């Protein structure tokens, strides 16, 4: 798999447009476990990233895209999820400095950097019932799988969905969801679900 930076910009922008249709679902999920602002965060953040990317020159690199996306997403709506994801994207920009092509290696490096920053800033780990429970296993599958981009994405989606289903039975350990304690059991993590919906939107856009 290989995509130019401009192809990445086009496909991901389309995916972010599609992702916004899930804002009500994410709001309702988040309202069960937190303050219900995830739908707004994802919708506002997606719009902000699309606008920021549209303003970049045609020769923008992958790092340029990630820097613009990180700044746009983190400031579009004040929330913990926005800060974590935005910070992750800013950290990821350093892993692809100067690169204008995205292969599996670049995608994996970006994903790992995002996961590492979320782990550090969110003081969370896999098993705490956060976005990491879908993100990290899907990256593990990406790293271990060979094939066309569509096959890799399908494997990531299947793994993310499986892990979200598995962690729904756990008690949330981080963020506002931890405040409801045992009442969080039985609900899928909103952040992990948002990541899954992004992957699914990406498959449609690609």
Q: Which tags fit this structure?
A:
mainly alpha; Serine Threonine Protein Phosphatase 5, Tetratricopeptide repeat; 2 strands; 67% helix
What does this structure look like?
The protein has 206 residues and is mainly α. The chain contains nine helices and two strands, in the order E-H-H-H-H-H-E-H-H-H-H. Strands 1-2 form a two-stranded antiparallel ribbon. Helix 7 packs antiparallel against helix 8 and helix 7 crosses helix 9.
Task: List the topology elements.
Elements: E1 2-4, H1 5-19, H2 23-33, H3 38-54, H4 62-76, H5 80-93, E2 101-103, H6 104-122, H7 132-144, H8 149-167, H9 190-205
Antiparallel strand pairs: 1-2
Order of helices and strands: EHHHHHEHHHH
- Spatial arrangement of strands, main beta sheet: 1-2
Number of domains: 1
- Terminal CA distance reads 12 Å
Computed structural class: mainly alpha
What is the CATH topology assignment?
A: Serine Threonine Protein Phosphatase 5, Tetratricopeptide repeat
Uncertain stretches: 173-181
Short description:
It contains 9 helices and 2 strands.
